[in-house]
Structures are given as C-alpha cells and as structure tokens.
From TrEMBL:
Name listed for the protein in its UniProt record: Type VI secretion system protein TssA
Organism this protein belongs to: Escherichia coli
InterPro entries, sorted: T6SS-assoc_VCA0119
Pfam family, any one: T6SS_VasJ
Domain of life: Bacteria
PANTHER family the record matches: TYPE VI SECRETION SYSTEM DUF2094 AND IMPA-RELATED DOMAIN PROTEIN (PTHR37024), TYPE VI SECRETION SYSTEM PROTEIN TSSA (PTHR37024:SF3)
Length: 186
C-alpha cells in the first residue's frame, strides 16, 4: 500500500511538471536546464531500481518533453540575443558582453527612488516605529533577503527581556489564544 501511495503521488508530481514545461523552458538559464535534465535522468534510474517501470517511463517522457521544449526555445533565444547585441553596436560601436556571469553580477536597478527615513530615537516607541519603517522598505525592495524580516522581528520583540511570571504548574496570567482565531490558522 505504501508503494502504491508513492507511485500515485509521484505521478501527480510528474503531471504538474508537464504543465510547467513551456514556462520553464522560456525562463530558465542553461545551467538550470542542464541541472533539471540531469535530475530527471537520476530520477528515472531511481524508479527503475525500485521496480517502478511505469514511473521511470513517465520520467523519461518528461525528460524528452523538456528536451524538445529547450530545443524549440533555443533558436528563439539566439536570434533575440543577436538582435539585442547588434542594435547597440550599430549606434555606438560598443559590443556588450552577453555572458550570463556579467548579467547575474549586476545588481537589480530599483524603479522607485530610495525613500528617506527620519531616525527618531527619543523614546522606545519612536525607535520601534523607525525600525519598522526601515524593515518595511527592506522587505519591499528586497523581498528575497531575510534582513528586512529579521529587523521587523527585532523591532517587535526587542522590549521583551524576560519570561512572564508563571504559577508552579507553568500557567501564566496571559490569556489563551482564542479558539475561533485558531481555526483560521489550521
């Protein structure tokens, strides 16, 4: 029964990958494409070793589907890369470096100007508000960076310096979490 569940779940995952083939092929870098094909080959071998030939075949079919999509997208990318390289060269004589390393090394350019924050530290509440403003700006401009989330957490919890008073059995005078709100989280 456990292997039947694994097979059914794996088949569902493979179906989801099939629906994302074109999108991934159009947006993935060459390194990502090669890594995906390598992992799919390993997965097919793994299913073959576990006597799940139908999943191995489905994985091989997915591998072929991705290969075809990569081949179809490759000519489009080279022609658009050529036209992007020719246009600046014709007007300025400058040939841009089209290697993926230079593109990845450049920091993203922000579309909006950097907001000004006035640092107010005359009391705890003003300092907390300043930290929350900076954290909001960091989270908005760099959502992939954990720094803004850490700063927000620090701003919210910085005033807690000790544990709450507790009875001998561990109960605290703090109110319990409302059950109706708990249902929203489950």
């Amino acid at each position: 029964q456990n292997m039947a569940h694994k097979k059914r779940f794996a088949a569902q995952v493979i179906k989801r990958f099939e629906s994302a083939v074109q999108d991934f092929a159009g947006n993935a870098a060459t390194i990502q494409r090669d890594a995906l094909l390598g992992e799919l080959a390993k997965l097919a071998q793994c299913w073959q070793a576990h006597n799940a030939s139908e999943l191995a075949k489905a994985t091989d079919d997915l591998f072929s589907l991705f290969q075809r999509a990569f081949r179809d997208v490759a000519p489009e990318m080279t022609s658009s890369a050529r036209s992007a390289a020719i246009a600046p060269q014709a007007t300025t004589g400058y040939v841009p470096d089209m290697s993926p390393h230079t593109v990845a090394a450049q920091p993203p350019v922000a579309a909006t100007p950097i907001p000004q924050v006035t640092v107010e530290n005359h009391d705890d509440k003003a300092w907390r508000d300043t930290l929350l403003k900076v954290a909001a700006i960091l989270c908005e401009r760099q959502p992939e960076s954990p720094q803004g989330y850490r700063l927000r957490r620090h701003a919210l919890w910085q005033t807690i310096t000790s544990t709450p008073q507790a009875e001998s059995d561990g109960r605290t005078p703090l109110a319990a979490f409302p059950v109706d709100m708990m249902d929203d989280y489950l």
